[in-house]
Amino acid sequence: MILSIVPGTFAICRLSPTQDIPPWVWQRKAFLSVTYTEDELSIVCSVEVVPVDIQCERDWVVLKVQGPLDFSLTGILSSLVSPLAAHNIAIFALSTFDTDYILLKKMALPQAKAVLEQNGHTFH
Description:
Layout: E1 2-15, E2 33-36, E3 41-46, E4 56-65, H1 76-86, E5 91-95, E6 100-105, H2 109-118, E7 122-123
Parallel strand pairs: 1-7
Antiparallel strand pairs: 1-3, 1-4, 2-3, 4-6, 5-6
């Protein structure tokens, strides 16, 4: 797979499922994901906009799989996350209509990049 690094540093936030999407989310839209479930409102956004009192994990980077990817393709995420898991690199995966994204802690990026390249993936 061809991968790219989305510019910026990101946070993965957890809010109440009864809460509306807060206005601070919309301040920077380089990468933004909002997911509602019956258990939570999960937001991935630029770390710079997250208020200090919000429950979140900070300092994530985003790897983008160059797409668009056909829905019939199988094993894409597995080919990326399996080698990372084998090297104890934690990830947070997201998928969109066109492609997949993998978030990992900023400090793990050099090792993750080396592992993925050793497994045949390239960075653009």
